[in-house]
User: Fold this.
Amino acid sequence: MKTEQDNLFTELQEDELNISDLLQMGWANRYWFLASVMICLAGAFLYLHWTPRVYTRTASVLIKDDSKGGGGASEAAAFDELNLFNVKRNVDNEVLIFRSKRIMQEVARRLHLDVSYQVKQGLRTEELYTHSPVLVSFPEAEENQRFYLTVMPISDKEVQLSNFAVISASGEEVASGEPMTVALNDTVATPIGKIVAIPSLYFGENAVNQSIMVRKSNLEQVAVLYQAKLSASLATKTATIINLSLSDVSIARAEDVLNTLIAIYNEDAINDKNQITVNTSNFINDRLIIIEKELGNVDASIETFKRENQLTDITSETGMYLQNTSQFRQEGLSLDNQLSLAQYIKQYLTDPAKASDLIPANTGISDASVEGQIGEYNEMLLKRDKLIANSSSKNPVVMDLNNSLSAMKQTIIRSVDNLIVGLNIKIRNVRAQEAQTTRRISAVPTQQKYVLSVERQQKIKEELYLYLLNKREENALSQAITESNARIVDPASGSNQPVAPRSMLVLMGAFLLGCAIPAGVLYFINITDTKVRTRKEVERATTVPFLGEIPESQTDSEHEIVVKESGRDPVSEAFRILRTNMDFMRVKQKDLKTIMFTSFNPGSGKTFVSVNLAMSLALMQKKVVLVDLDIRKGTLGTYFKKSHHGVTNFLSGNIEHVNEILTKTDLSEYLDVIFSGPVPPNPAELLLSDRLELMMEELRKQYDYVILDNVPAGVVADATIVNRVADLTVYVIRAGNMDRRLLPEVEKLYRQEKFRNMCLVLNGTDYSNSTYGRYGYGYGYGYGYGNEEGEKKRRKHRILKKKEA
Assistant:
């Protein structure tokens, strides 16, 4: 149980991310990281010197909302009886109004934001706004037109116009026209239309030969752009203060936009409040003109009648008769006045030309319900007009309001009709009583009756005329004292430090990006590389005993024996470790004389490992014979001078004694070689013969180690056939040659015991590979790749060998 826990703990440790490995990998690729960081930082510096600086300006306004204590009630308290300040303001709606497209479009129109002036200063393009030495106007240009040109002052009286280009609706730039020199303040015709170049207060000698790019943009698109830049929000949930913020490349332009926005908002609010007052004033003026004309006709009739009839003081003569009728007359006058006003209101309501206008309010009608209905109608009409201005007439809310307005108007008409009917009834009653009194004075001359009738009309007209004059003064007073919705708390202001681009943030991002790019590339290479590279990958996927790993040889030839006496290079040391680890394989097999080398696929370096291991054993003064059992190709011939006789001659019976196929080598007196011999037509059958056991038995008697260089096990069956005579099977895996997905097949061979006493050797490991880091192999005595001095010695040795050759 404890052994299983230890194994599990070891596997978890191997699977954990090794920080040391990552640091070594980063150090091995430090030049790539350094180059990437330098490139990204250079790009960041270029970006910081190319990108225009952006500044932020903020302003605060107080909305005078009575419901939240915004103020404004005390100032209007003296005029409460006029009922002129009953419009409730919603602060949340005012935030939306500040951000409306209509107001921003008016701001862009007033400040000419569709025309920009830019100059090139180094890599950065600077916005001049109103600081441009030359201001350009386009008398005939439409708001939706887009074009640009370059203006360059060449003297104190002339400028040069060039680079004319018209931008189409699709965004294409169509250049046309040659450069032209024009005088300042003159209207000139150019390929993009008429232009007037006007010198500004900043025009001077330093502006001469300065190229200024003037761009005319679509006004509506500019308004939409600034509408997106504008930020409007409440300071707190309970306050009526709105904070406005705008970011722009020009400080002056940002301040002008915010201040103009507040000014236009106030103008719009005042105009909205005065709309009822203006309509009422127009109605009163129209009625005054009509009544004044009628009153003049009545006065003229009285004057003519008295002159023709030579009448002097008619009142004194008929005073005693009129005393009884004064009460009825006064009541009749009041009813006639109310009837006239009701008829005027009905005429106004039924007039098709005034169907969409506001209904005159506070006209003096005695019926309070009619006045209340008119006030509700006007308030709903104003709400509908504001919604139409910010949306469209097809808005469902607008359509519902239209239906409500129509129904409300019909209700008002019916109420006025009922009022007129009631007044007529009262007038008939008063007239009936007055007729009775009139019959009492029937003896009065006809002239007296006519004068009374005309005087009555005159008094009615005079009373109505004076009443309307009074209402006109009240209406003018309300219009004069109308206050704005907003009061400026803080005008547009802010820091002169740019908010973008943020230098430290950009440089930090560039540094991180410079580190992330090579790290990402290395990670991508790592996850897409399916080849076996390291010992850890082999041990993680298999349980086969791992005998050792052989670094990639630094020699110029692939078929060179690198193990030499007193060799201190990493490969020689690796074979010494491999030779030592072989003793640990004696657990299953006490006698390890016959060692067979095989692999999964060709090119794994079996021959290289077997030859150099044989040489390493021979240097220990062990008698070693190296047998080439790859009778199909005979690879040992690339390392030694090949003999004509070999294994196939003995297996076929052409040679009886093993000593006849043995070949001495010049490398060591303890190392002999048996070559493969001629290629037979039946290699598998030869290897199945009993003469193979006979040959192995003879060799085991004469030598301490018999090393068999065999074919790949995954290609032909020769390795499996020969394995019956082997004491130890060394399975060679070439780093970078075998797919990691094939390691389970190797594990399967081991578990099924297809090969006797099987162990693994990883050949060709490259510790200097920049992808996996530089892991020192040796022990600090010149063996490892991590030893810089050893690297220099090896390079010097290779150079000397080339010179000697």
Remarks:
- Residues 1-17, 67-88, 770-791 have pLDDT under 50 and may be disordered.
- The longest helix spans residues 251-309.
- The chain has 21 helices and 22 strands.
- The longest strand covers residues 158-167.
